[in-house]
Design goal:
The structure holds 2 protein chains of 2 kinds. By secondary structure, chain A is of the alpha+beta class. Chain A has helices spanning 3-22, 24-58, 81-87, 131-135, 175-178, 186-193, 213-223, 232-240, 248-269, 274-285, 290-322, 329-333, 350-377, 380-385; strands at residues 65-71, 74-76, 78-79, 92-98, 100-105, 110-116, 126-129, 151-155, 161-169, 181-184, 199-200, 202-207, 227-231. In chain A, 53% of the residues lie in helices and 17% in strands. Chain A is elongated, with a radius of gyration of 31 Å. The two termini of chain A are 37 Å apart. The mean pLDDT of chain A is 86. Chain B has helices at residues 5-33, 35-48, 60-63, 94-97. The N and C termini of chain B lie far apart (71 Å). The chains are: A alpha+beta, B mainly alpha. At the A-B interface, helix 1, helix 2, strand 1, strand 6 and helix 5 of A face helix 1, helix 2 and helix 3 of B.
Chain lengths: 386, 99
């Protein structure tokens, strides 16, 4: 493209911008809806890819196989004796019973994840807690956080109170996995929840060869038909389904906005207003070529879609990674009072931005050109008279 | 020099493109800074045999989606509305649907 054609494009762009400003309110409304749509799609895409990326890295050392016992379709306690028979299966390196569960704290209204740790086996009466637990201990006094050597009271299964001394905290940057976690000794766990020795919540298995996991899982089910093994790659796949477009709320929000946008785009694509047709007719009558009119309409569409794209994508980045999904927080928080405060690590790529650009900018720009092409190819006199 | 509307548009496009480049730079820098914290999270996961991320604490199946059983969670169809808002964010884990 030589200098004169560049100058010509700039003049056409000047005119296109002036034309957009003549229909200011309509185009601003269109731009806002457009930006919001791009914002929503980008937020979902950024959050989903970031969470998947984080899950794939953080959980890469998650248990290779977790064995649950199911009774009447629900998870139940598993006899520790199962560990002996399972460990006899060829290829298994170790079987470790896990004791974990949920504790509803009526004082704060929060539900915690409580887990027994072998590291605290010799330290009965002590606990290590996550950052979310320390924040939510006293809702009446939110400014006061639990500090070291504070007492954490637990109501046991038989109605007694078991006091545990806070001896440590998980680091704040581990909130994505430990926000609601309370680590206690096995003795305290059995005292609080009334679980008899000889039973555990589930079993975690380490295999000698990762490629044999599926075979080992099949053998476990054969040996104990009431068990359900969950493989590590199934845990990984679970997080690929987080923020899936089919999950209820995302579909609802996206479909509503897509419908609104489709109405606006359809309005543009099915025809021009009488005023716009007249404008094209006048332009052709004063000497504009059909290609000039199409360039003008292209620049109009490109201006709205590109600016909306930038506003939407940049807004989504700030919302997801700087403002920690503040608009989605009430949904993730739901009915509970304990909410992990974490900042996702971005995993935005050129490929993602290009995909968003192609999906959001190009279709709209094309839909604005087609009706203009129809109007620009007919006789200016008949366009102005119609 | 006379102000032209095309200058404004081109400036906005350039600014937008620059912001996108900054987003990519910020992504790379944040990932580098977060490396140590991530290694620590991995160590905790390994030591405590953790299976799930703590995204929401309101229901068992959204706190530990990978450990959820078949009947309680993700009851989303027109006659069975999801009770917990966070359940609407997470699709059914594939290994639950496959069985």
């Amino acid at each position: 493209m030589n200098t004169s054609s560049l100058a010509k494009q700039r003049y056409i762009l000047d005119y296109a911008f002036a034309s957009l400003l003549r229909r200011k309110s309509k185009n601003i409304a269109l731009g806002l809806v457009y930006s919001f749509l791009v914002f929503l799609i980008s937020t979902v895409l950024f959050t989903a890819t970031s969470l998947k990326h984080e899950a794939s890295l953080t959980l890469e050392d998650a248990p290779e196989i977790t064995v649950q016992r199911l009774v009447a379709g629900r998870q139940d306690l598993i006899p520790v004796a199962y560990a002996d028979s399972i460990s006899a299966i060829r290829g298994i390196q170790s079987v470790q019973p896990r004791l974990w569960g949920y504790y509803f704290d009526s004082l704060s209204g929060a539900t915690y994840t409580v887990q027994a740790s072998t590291d605290l086996a010799e330290n009965s009466g002590e606990t290590v807690i996550g950052a979310g637990v320390s924040r939510r201990y006293e809702p009446e006094k939110p400014a006061r956080k639990i500090s070291e050597n504070d007492i954490l009271p637990f109501k046991t299964h038989d109605g007694h109170v078991k006091n545990l001394v806070v001896k440590g905290f998980f680091p704040a940057h581990s909130e994505l996995i430990t926000a609601d976690l309370i680590l206690i000794s096995e003795t305290d766990f059995r005292t609080i929840f009334g679980i008899q020795p000889g039973y555990a919540t589930d079993l975690v298995i380490k295999a000698r060869n990762e490629r044999e996991l599926a075979t080992i899982a099949a053998k476990i089910v054969q040996l104990h038909p009431d068990t359900r093994p969950i493989l590590r790659n199934e845990i990984m796949r679970t997080y690929e389904a987080v923020f899936d477009w089919r999950s209820g709320l995302i579909l609802l929000v996206l479909s509503g906005t897509l419908c609104a946008f489709a109405v606006l785009a359809w309005d543009k694509a099915t025809g021009l207003s009488a005023e716009e047709r007249k404008e094209i007719g006048i332009l052709k009558a004063v000497g504009w070529d059909t290609s000039d009119v199409l360039y003008m309409k292209f620049w109009e569409g490109a201006a709205i879609s590109m600016l909306s794209f930038f506003v939407g994508v940049i807004g989504a980045y700030f919302h997801t990674f700087i403002a920690s999904l503040v608009l989605f927080e009430p949904i993730l928080k739901g009915w509970t009072v304990l909410y992990p405060e974490f900042r996702l690590t971005p995993s935005v790529t050129v490929y993602q931005l290009t995909t968003l650009f192609i999906l959001t900018v190009i279709p709209y720009t094309v839909t604005t050109i087609i009706p203009s092409w129809r109007a620009a190819t007919i006789d200016p006199d008949s366009v102005m008279r119609s | 020099m006379r102000y032209r509307r095309s200058d404004l548009f081109l400036s906005l496009v350039l600014l937008g493109a620059l912001m996108l480049v900054l987003i990519l730079v910020d992504t790379a820098v944040t990932n580098r800074i977060d490396q140590d914290a991530r290694r620590e999270r991995q160590a905790i996961v390994k030591a405590l045999t953790i299976t799930d991320l703590c995204l929401s604490t309101e229901a068992r199946y959204t706190r530990h989606p990978s450990m959820a059983d078949w009947h309680a969670p993700f009851q989303e169809h027109p006659l069975s509305l999801e009770h917990f808002p966070s359940g609407s964010m997470i699709a059914v884990p594939p290994h639950l649907g496959a069985r």
